[in-house]
Each structure stands twice: as C-alpha cells, then as structure tokens.
Design a protein that fits this description.
336 residues; 17 helices
Length: 336
Amino acid sequence: MPPAVLGDVCASLIINGHLWKRAEWIAPSRAALVHYGAIQNQRGICLGLYGLAAGLLGDKPNDAEGLRACDEGLALAKAIGDQWMMAHILHILAANALDMGDFRNAETWYREMVSIRRSIGNDVEVAIGLWQYAEVLSRTLRFREAIGCLRESTRLASQIDSPQDVVHADSAIGENLRLCGEFSEASSILEDAIALARDQLPTEDVIFPLISLGKTFIRLGDHAQSRALLHEAATTVRSTSGSVPTFHFDRREILDAFAMLASAAEDASRAARLWGAADRLWAGNVTPRRPQSAWEYAPYMEKAWAALGDAAHEAALAEGRALTVEQALAYALGES
C-alpha cells in the first residue's frame, strides 16, 4: 500500500465505523507512523497513533502500548488543536476504561468526548456519544440519569434520520426503564425499537432489544412471551454468527436471560445449569457481567440456589460449565 494513502486508510476505518475490525488497523497504523513521522506531518502522526491505540486496545484491553499511543495521540491532538481527533482518542480511552471497570475515568472521558463533539456540531457523533456515556451511568446503577441522556440521543438520531442510532438508544432506554421497575413503558419502547430494526436495519440489530424485551416480560410474569422473544434472539444469533460484530449477539447475555427465565418459572436446576454455562463464557472474557445485569439477576440466582441447596446447586452449575457454547445454546432452546 503506498505510504501516502495510509493515513486516508486509517481515517476511512474510523469514519466508516469498522470498530469490530480493529486488529486490521494495527499494521497500516504502524506504517502511517513511520511515513508521517519521516515527513513530520503532525496530523498524520496523530491519526496513526489513534489507529494503533484502537487496534491494540480493541484486541487486548489495557494493552500498555495501546495506552501509550492514546496518551501521545491525545497530547498531540491538543497541541495542534485537532478536536475531531481528540474526541476519537477520548472515545478509545473511555471505552477501555469501561471494559476494565474504571467507571470514574470512563465517565470523565465520555463526558469530555461528548462536549467536544457538541462544539464541533456533529449531531451523529453526539447521539452516539450520549448512548455510550449513558452505559457508564447504567453500570453505576444511575438509571434515571442514563434515561435522560438516552432520550436526547434518540431525539438527535431522529432529527438526522439515523434509525440504527434510534434503535440503540431506545433499546437502552427500555432496559433502564425496566431496571427502574417501569415495565409497561419499557415494553412499549422496546417493541417500537424491534419493529424499527426489523423494518430498516440488518438482522443482528434486533437481537439486543429482543433480549431486553424478553427480560421485561419475565418481570411482568409473562413467561411464554419471554420464551418466544429469547428463542428468536438465540436463533438470530445462530443465523448471523461470524458475519457481524460480536457485541450484537453476545451469547453470554442470551444464556443469562434464559437462566433468569428458568428461575422465574421455578425450574431451579435448569437455571443453575444455564448460569454455569454463562459463567464459563464470562470467565473467558476480560469484561465481567455488566453491574446492572448482575444487580437484576441477583434475586433470581438466589432463588435457584435456595430451591436446590448448596450441593445440588453447585452440581448443576458444574454441569452447565461443562457445556460448549453451542451445547449451551441448544440446551437453552430446549433442543437437548
């Protein structure tokens, strides 16, 4: 690849949002740093540092070289007054902090990122930044604050006619409303998000609102409707596996939701097996269960444990941990 266009390649990756392919950023970003360093092109160097940081931290959260690239890139972006690049590097820092459970820094960096994007006047990036910032609020159990941010995100996304961002924000609003105990409003918003995703977006965009609505119906006591929604989410995961970003169809979240349903339906052994299967997947991931999810699942986990007793509960968990991902999904769907 000619070195003169390496910076444009990095910029294209950023602009087109190929965040799930960050490992592909590393090689061109290193080459861009060599090329632009040789000709002392400060913006090119900054872009290369951003791409390197995004690639390394996307592949391995808290990677030391990735964090150094963030620090150097942010300092350079500030020095040359490049607000667009400052916002993107802050986004990487915030996302990494969120993954590592460093909610204080994640909140600070997301807030600064949103502020810069507002000053630039890019409503698309403000809308995205607000629902990302709202995730920090939700993970710190500040559900009402999160809803406020998300409603603004939905408003902006609607104004700029970005259905994907509307679905993302409304799905998160529905989740936070459920966590506040407002099940009727949550179900209404989630149903609208599902309808919009089915009508205008790729198949995978319906998965998160399906899972969230499924959990809402558990809270409402409608287990049959919940089972139907979670079944659709799981089968959609199977049909899209390998073709889209993994955050769209997290099997861990689906197994957790099926376990919650089993506990609510008084099937404690099934619930414990499913949570054992989910535990195995969470244990192999840098990011643990989201705190808001753990908070919601806690009474259902305790219910299953109380129904089984220590020995039977631990045995069921162990049976679940022994399942492969596909075996666990088949078990959740009632196929085995």
